Amino acid sequence: QVQLVESGGGLAQAGGSLRLSCAASGRTFSSYTYAMGWFRQAPGKEREFVAVHAWNIGSTYYADSVKGRFTISRDNTKKTLYLQMNSLKPEDTAVYYCAAAPNGRSWGSVGSYDYWGQGTQVTVSS
């Protein structure tokens, strides 16, 4: 079993920054065999892809809505995923979820991810 625990959410003003963290644990979890990503869900909306870090090919991918503002990174020695969010906008307000998927799946799809964190609230005021 794999556990993912997010932290770092909170309240920020538009134009501000926040940094989210996601700590992974579990006997079967290997940082090298899982892609790790961030999704978000705003009230009344579907959960949407934000960013993913695919270790096996060393690539990162972002949703167009966050490209150039958010940066995903991971520290495999600590089994921790990060999301640096800059130039925040009110439309970034959502619950942010960390997720892990075996390498090779479609990273933009919610259904590709086997493990999810409990979510952390990010609220951006105008």
Describe the structure.
The protein is mainly β and 126 residues long. Helices cover 0% and strands 52% of the residues. Strands 2, 4, 5, 6, 9, 10 and 11 form a seven-stranded mixed sheet that branches. The protein has a four-stranded antiparallel sheet with strand order 1-3-8-7, with no helix packed on it. Strand 5 and strand 6 form a beta hairpin. The N and C termini lie far apart (40 Å). The model has no long low-confidence stretch (mean pLDDT 92).
Summarize this structure as a short list of keywords or feature phrases.
mainly beta; 126 residues; 0% helix; globular; seven-stranded mixed sheet
| SSE order, one letter for each helix or strand | EEEEEEEEEEE
Low-confidence stretches: none
Number of helices, counting only DSSP H or I runs of 4 residues or more: 0
Fraction of residues in H or I helices:
under 10%
Rg calculated over all Cα atoms: 14 Å
Task: Work out the number of β strands.
Answer: 11
Distance between the termini: 40 Å
Dominant shape: globular
- The biggest beta sheet, please? 7 strands, mixed
Which structural class is indicated by helix and strand composition? mainly beta
Q: Provide mean pLDDT, rounded.
A: 92
Strand content range = over 45%
Oligomer: single chain
Brief characterization of the structure:
The protein is mostly beta strands.
Secondary structure layout plus pairing:
Blueprint: E1 3-7, E2 10-13, E3 18-25, E4 34-41, E5 48-54, E6 59-62, E7 70-75, E8 80-85, E9 94-102, E10 115-116, E11 120-125
Parallel strand pairs: 2-11
Antiparallel strand pairs: 1-3, 3-8, 4-5, 4-9, 5-6, 7-8, 9-10, 9-11
